[in-house]
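Recap slide: protein-tyrosine-phosphatase, sequence and predicted structure.
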Amino acid sequence: MRASSCCIFWTLAALTQVALGTDLVIQIPGNPSSEGGIYRLDYDPPRGLPPTNATFSSKDIRNDTIAFKNGLPGTRYSFKLYYTNSTSNDLLTWRASITTPPDPPSNLSVTVVSGDTAKINWSPPKQGGYSGYKLKVVPLPEVGNSAQTYDSSVSPFVLQNLTSGASYQVQLFSVYEGKESIAYTSHNFTTKPNTPGKFIVWFRNETTLLVLWQPPFPPGVFDYYKVTFSTPTSGTHPGPPSQVSIEPSDARESVLYVKDEGEPPGPAQAAFKDLVPGRAYNISVQTMSEGEVSIPTTAQYRTVPERPLSVTFEEGSITYNSFRVVWEGPNEETEFDKYQISLNGMRRPAPVIKGKESPRILEFRDGLEPGKTYQVSVKTMSGKVASWPTTANVTLIPLSVIHLSSSTDEDTGDVIIKWTPNPASHQDSYKLSYHEVDTNNGDRDTNNMIVLDTSSRLESLLPGRNYSITVHAISNQVESNGTSIYQATKPSSPIIEDLRPTHFGLNISWKSDVNSKQDEYEVTYSRNDTGHVVKTITSTSNLSLTGLEPGAGYHLQVVAISHGLRSEPHVNFQAVYPQPPRNLTIEKLTSNSVLVKWQPPEDSIFSEYIIRHQTDDGKFYKLPAVKENETEIIDMIPGEKYLIQVNTASFGVESTDPPGVTQTIQPNGVSNIESLIDSVNVTLAWPKPEGRIDFYSIAWKLEEELNDPEEDEDNDEESPVPIAGSKNISTSDVVENNGKVSVLIGELIPGAKYSFLIYTTSHGQNSDVTEFVTRTMPLLQTEIVVVNDQQISDALTLRYTKTPKSVSRFDTYRFMLSDPNIPLKEKAANDTETKVTFTDLVPGRLYNITVWTVSDGVESLPLQRQDRLYPKPITWINASRITDTEVTLMWDKPDGEYNRFEVQYLNLDGDLLQNLTLDTSITLSGLKPYRNYTFTVVVRSGSESSALRRSLPVSSTFSTQESVPNKVERFIPVHVKPKEIEFEWYLPPSDHNGVIQQYTITYGLEGSKNTKEEHFQPSELHGVIRNLIPGKTYLFKIQAKTRVGYGPEVINKSKTPILSPPKPGSQVVPTEVRRTSSSIQIRFRKNYFSEENGEVVAYAIIVAEDTSKNASGLEMPSWKDVQAYNSWPPYQVMEPYFPFQNSTVEDFTIGLDANCESRKGYCNGPLKSGTTYSVKIRAFTAPDKFTDTHYSFAIQTDNDNTAWIIGFTIPVLVLFVVLMSVMAVRRKKNVCNNLEARHNDAMSLPDSVMETSRPVKLKEFAEHYRIMSADSDFRFSEEFEELKHVGREQACTAADLPVNRPKNRFTNILPYDHSRFKLQPLDDDEDGSDYINANYVPGYNSPREFIVTQGPLHSTRDDFWRTCWESNSKAVIMLTRCVEKGREKCDHYWPYDTQPVYYGDIQVTILNESLYQDWNIAEFRMCRGDSSRLIKHFHFSTWPDFGVPDPPQTLVRFVRAFRERVPPDQRPIVVHCSAGVGRSGTFIALDRILQQIKKDTEVDIFGIVYAMRKERVWMVQTEQQYICIHQCLLAVLEGKENDYGPREIHENEGFDDDEGIAESGM
């Protein structure tokens, strides 16, 4: 009888072909096909195939199963299986009651109600039963999202609490008796996204609108923003996402789509260009998600209208208290509805509004001040949007000056004009005009000048004129009515330009200034000795006076007269010509003087006599005047011919006809005669005599007998010789040099005595005669030979030849050496011995040898030679110090002279080496150790260029000491194995430097400090280093050793090879642990493979069904590759891996991976059931080095029983999925909790817990800095890290308002609410007009000493100047450049030049600027309305893009320069960099410290930074800046404040500078 148990399985058709009904598979246990018999299947209800009570023969049953098809879904079936054979009839073998799964619902639809609600509708299954429904809502996409499940009994069903804009899939199942339909009906839908936030206009001009809007809140899910742009009269046109062009003009609207930028959503923007100026545009924005569109957010904005074309003022309308302004409308297409006219210069005047069609003219009259300048600005208005202003300035006419007066400066004659300005008027200068009053009414020139004071000195008025003078007040080049006065000027004083005496009279003429006018002249003259005065009037400019006394003196005065005013007089004095003297004669004559006499004149006044004389040069020389009738003229020039005149003089006026006389003076003779002689010539020289010389006369004769009796015996012939002679030499022919006259007398006898007579002649007169006696020089025709012996070093012998007596007269030979202590030697001319010896000389000395012939004391020209004596040798040599490479030699000092010592020795190559020294010792280095050397010392005197002499040599032999050997010459590996290397080396005997004791090889891994040593005998020249690690690089160092020590090392770097691991034994194979029908678990151990050839780094598993195939290749087939084989060849299971991290045993399961058909590379795919496999392990020492074990014993997988257990497996899997989903939800919650906890950890600690102050005594600060900076600034890093979150818990509500977000340069640098600086709100502006990104920060003198702000944006620079004005700040500190690293760090918020610039309603003007090496200091004037203030601007311009100022002392000097100009009571100070945190905080901290150390004995840098960070985020933003503050203080305390030397730069790679902190702003 068969077992009564069957298994039922739902077939695949039940999942895919619902319309065909439910299909079942009934599996019959055992093997019914092998048995005889018949089966009958009965079921109820009778709906399905095979039909009820169908029978099946055992042999017809395939795969032991009976298929049931086309059953009713959602129906409870009762099945019975009967069996009949030869022994049993219709035996009930199995029965079961089975409920089939229901069909799914139909007609599923979804209606989106709102952003979080949707309505689900459906129809029941078309056939079969059902008891309810199950809804599964799956968020799309599914990654990271969990599905929600709902039960429902009826349709419809409302889904709530959905995410706005999110996409979902609804999966609807039918449920019958607890069973869900296998299939389901699904529908995808998207909820409505949330509405976007509020609009703000980020930028607009005449043709462009750039709008921003906030993301929806809560954000929900959305993909795009849909932006609709339209006008009331013209639509829009679709364009690209980035812009819209309104074309054509009648288009109704334009739509663009802006993509969501991601999480978290931030403000979005859209730009519209080519718009109509001034037109109103409707803008709406909606979020879109999968076709769903939110409710729109709408706004209307206008473009800026075009400005008026021009602004002018009606001609003639400008008075002292009113004016009319006229303007032209825009000349381009624009829309606007009115004009706004504003008058700047009054206290907050209300603007005037005029309609677009109103007359474009407006009169201002009320409250205007004379002379004041007003600025009129006209704007077009479209709604509330104003155009850029068109402006023009107008200045009212100032009031006339009062109290005009004039006066004349008596000292200079200048006219001084004074006046008083009208106190009711404005004026900046005055125009002073004057012209001459001309009665002829002709053309007249008016002179104008502009002055700033209320008085003026007129220095350019013409003399002798009558002037009209007018003064106008001026305000901005507008003049008032004039105030006038009249003033006459004195004529210029005439100048007497010619006053000449005549016989018995005077002629006088004068001139006047060409610019002066005068009516007449008054001339007055009076005689000086009688006082008689004569006065006359004339209209001409000259006058002749006659009948005056000869020689008398007269005073004259000339005055000009004009308009009744007299000029200053011009006064002069002049005498009349006197009569000349009479009877001039010469009474006495000497060598240089004459006495002259004369008679006085008749009938004339005179005061003195004037004496003059003249020579041939034609010039008269005036002598001092005399009173007497005679005078002696001295210092006359000898040899000159003189003309002498005597004249009378009266007050410097001489008579016109003086008498004269002529006289010649005797010339001077020669004196102080010198002679320059040679053998046949005598050159006579004497100082040139004073006075005139026409020529010289010279005569000479021989003073001794011609022949010597001895000479007559030798010479039989007589030759004619000159005895006497004479010559006359003109002064033009003589040679003059340095005031001396030279004359050559030639053809004389050598060695003879002569007498010379000399005199001079001038104008025919001779001087006295001078006599001079001298002798000619004898001749020398002798040769000298110097005899010098090396053995005799203190004597010198000279041999010479005789000079013939026939060529010269002489009596002696003279010999002399250059040493003055050696007496000269003489030998008679007739001495027959021709040898002279000098003894007791100095050895080695260079002597100059001189020889003459002498005639009566007169020497011939010398014959000179030069020679040096040999120096004396040394007597001994000793070695005072001997080392391995050096020998120090010493020797005695020889007598005499020498230059140096020459030390010689032979090196090992046989080369002679020479060393020179000045001392009696020398150290010879570079010697070879352990060698014998012979040293020779030679004394040298002189040089190669000056008669070098060497002494006899002296030698001695010495040996160097033993030393360390030299480098090993050859050190190479000859056999390299994974764990050992054999080396060879060689050291030549010449490099032993002693006796070699051993060789040592030191080795270790490259980069490691651990080394080992191996020692080898001196005779060993190769060796093996063992126990190395395969695949490692080693450094090997070899050294030879002597008794002294080791020599230098030679390094060899070698890498041990990695080879394949040795093959394990045949019994070393993986073993079976367990198996299934599709997998095998094996076990292998780390010790399977030896690491002799290298460390095993990876393992791979090789599986084979057919082990006969090759499995030795590196690239093995994969699981996918062997699927085409009936019997699988060897394949590799997975990529190589290393399992032995924490154990030495690995259990690996083969066949676990699924879906290997679609995966590339190796994959651990399932094994075949009931199949026998062999496994081996592959070990890798390198990617291409491996060895395999032998194959394991055969392992067979189990048979596949899937059909029996699938009915049980599916419910288990469903339960498992549910459990895993629950665990995933809980895990996600835990992750969120962990993230939240970690976020809470990042919050700052309360002050009660955290230490807020760390003072350090100033005397201990240097040690404190050393400790903090140790270990690469480790303690600085720790301390700075503690400040990381200080203050971060404080609110920044105002900064995060939508209207204020565009005003922040960086999105994460926001001001705290409690300390932010608040501007005065503007009356006509929207919310946020009180906001600027700035905080009060404490300083040393006040808790609100500084206002720290960001570098102004172009859109916030007006707010920056409002901050400076409303805080009444006296200084701005700027610590950044406008552009750094190619990026804008700060707007150029001040004027570029000296022209004033308006920033809002504040006018800023640069007054002055001083440039320094690292900073600039400027002074600005701020004007708002009628008020003005001065503010200083300190710009530190060399803060580097990275790091801090180098050297840090630069910042100290900048802070001191700031404090020298801004005292502590002037506060607050505005400070900014780019973000307004890092550099600004560094500056403020240093300013506080430099003030604190003047009064306190300790400093608290940590506390200062802590206090600043409580007021503004991230003050002193980087660790590098924090260290810089300490470095600055250290430099000040050590007195190195003004040092400019290099310093160590402290870097923190986490940051650049405070400008790189959060460049995520807009």
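Residues 970-1053 form a domain with the Immunoglobulin-like fold (CATH 2.60.40.10).
The two ends are 87 Å apart (CA to CA).
(End of recap.)
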